[in-house]
């Protein structure tokens, strides 16, 4: 029986050092490690994450999945129950959690006739998951309060302030965005941000015989769709539309108010096709419903557009 180790960090600024320590102390024999790319969002459903799907494909009945903490694998109550059903009922895999509140729980206890998780296990899982969600919500509220006081959260600008002038000068002298990104060890998106007002789409404004650019339109994107897209490889214009979206809280979920052109809305919808399942991809009903809701909004937008 194989020991399958799963690791994940939420941003590319983090490391798996703490997870490595916990898992090393557990003394796991001959581990087969599946580690997500840095920055794989916890908002993305585990069954949609590349390395976890690879783990499920590799696993055989009787194997054990090891994680340092439950929240390295799942985020909310819905995710937890989905994953436990796939691991235990569908794949016959054991799950070992080596740290945190879940480490003391038997997550394999099931009803002898129905095969469902015992109600007591569901209750404890949901209670602990809800406590984790409350902690994240309090953190979110704290960040908003800090912003109101003038403190700016989030990552620091990828291009340092003392390098911005040099980047802009080099761009005006003909240096390409790709070359500048290599020179300064940052992403192309970071360079585009630093020279945004120098890009052709800005400098062409006011010139004769240049057609007016397509005006942006605003759509509310379901949060589950936005979470999936954030973990998907996108074109710069598509990524910019997501990054500039405004979060609107709705109960325990949210929608992302995205303002961009009709063409970009259509492209973002096309990237969501995997949420409908098929071709070996597990289907999560809530995500499929969210994608179809977004599809209806985009279709209505296109039908009324030029």
Note the main attributes of this structure.
3 domains, three-stranded antiparallel β-sheet, 306 residues, alpha/beta, four-stranded parallel β-sheet, single chain, Rossmann fold
Overall description:
- There is one protein chain.
- By secondary structure, the chain is of the alpha/beta class.
- 45% of the residues lie in helices and 12% in strands.
- It folds into three domains: 3-136, Resolvase, N-terminal catalytic domain (Rossmann fold, 3-Layer(aba) Sandwich), CATH 3.40.50.1390; 161-203; 217-304, no CATH class.
- It has helices at residues 17-25, 50-58, 77-90, 119-148, 161-172, 177-184, 188-194, 200-203, 223-230, 236-243, 262-271, 285-304, and strands at 3-7, 31-35, 64-67, 94-97, 217-222, 246-250, 253-260.
- The strands form two sheets. A four-stranded parallel beta sheet has the order 2-1-3-4, with helices on one face. The chain has a three-stranded antiparallel beta sheet with strand order 5-7-6.
- The model is unreliable at 204-210 (pLDDT under 50).
């Amino acid at each position: 029986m194989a020991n399958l180790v799963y690791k994940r960090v939420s941003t590319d600024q983090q490391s798996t050092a703490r997870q490595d320590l916990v898992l090393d102390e557990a003394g796991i024999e001959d581990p087969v490690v599946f580690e997500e790319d840095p920055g794989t969002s916890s908002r993305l459903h585990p069954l949609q994450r590349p390395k976890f799907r690879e783990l499920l494909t590799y696993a055989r009945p009787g194997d054990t999945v090891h994680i340092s903490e439950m929240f390295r694998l799942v985020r909310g109550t819905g995710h937890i129950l989905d994953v436990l059903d796939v691991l235990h009922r569908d794949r016959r895999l054991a799950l070992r959690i080596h740290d945190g509140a879940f480490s003391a729980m038997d997550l394999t206890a099931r009803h002898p006739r129905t095969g469902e998780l015992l109600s007591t296990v569901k209750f404890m899982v949901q209670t602990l998951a809800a406590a984790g969600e409350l902690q994240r919500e309090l953190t979110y509220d704290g960040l908003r309060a800090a912003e109101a006081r003038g403190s700016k959260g989030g990552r620091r600008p990828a291009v340092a302030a003392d390098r911005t002038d040099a980047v802009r000068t080099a761009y005006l002298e003909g240096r390409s965005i790709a070359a500048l990104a290599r020179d300064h060890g940052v992403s192309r998106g970071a360079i585009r941000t630093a020279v945004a007002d120098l890009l052709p789409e800005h400098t062409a404004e006011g010139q004769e015989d240049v057609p007016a650019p397509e005006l942006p339109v605003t759509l509310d994107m379901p949060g589950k769709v936005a979470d999936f897209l954030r973990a998907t490889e996108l074109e710069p214009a598509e990524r910019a539309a997501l990054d500039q979206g405004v979060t609107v809280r709705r109960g325990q979920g949210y929608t992302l108010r995205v303002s961009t052109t009709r063409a970009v809305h259509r492209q973002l919808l096309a990237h969501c096709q995997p949420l409908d399942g098929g071709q070996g991809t597990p289907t999560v009903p809530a995500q499929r419903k969210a994608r179809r809701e977004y599809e209806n909004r985009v279709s209505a937008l296109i039908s009324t557009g030029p």
